[in-house]
Amino acid sequence: MSAFTNGPASVDLDRYTVSRTISIQAPLEKVWAAITEAEHLARWFPQRVDLPVAEVGTRGVFSFEGYGDFPVEVEAIEPMRMIAYRWGNELGAPVALESAASTLFRFTIEGIEGGTQLTVVETGFEATANPAARMEDNRGGWTSELDELVAYLEGSV
Q: Which partner from 72, 77, 93, 148 sits 20 to 30 angstroms from 48, CA to CA?
């Protein structure tokens, strides 16, 4: 069980964002690997990851059981601090990365006493077909997925 208490993800309707900050009882290097390396991503986020390397411009696929294959692209990276992915996901259905329905999610990490703090911010919802529904859906997703990340890194899975 984690020494930290993490709240759920939240929606900012005015800024069209979904965000969540969590604290993880794990070193920065371990958290970095979990958000950038396919073998670790597949343990807590998509069930299958086809992303050869975490470099700007690399394209791949995140596959979710029951939902399908979603295109992804690494848009920005600052090693050991931040990685941003664009993905084509419209209410659980894959869309092209070039589509207005694609969004950008950015993980930022920093060392804290006893572990690592991770923040995810997902943006770009204003151009989607139903921004409020999409943000609410992704709010629930980030709450459960990041809980899985904590469990994975802290040894509960």
A: 77
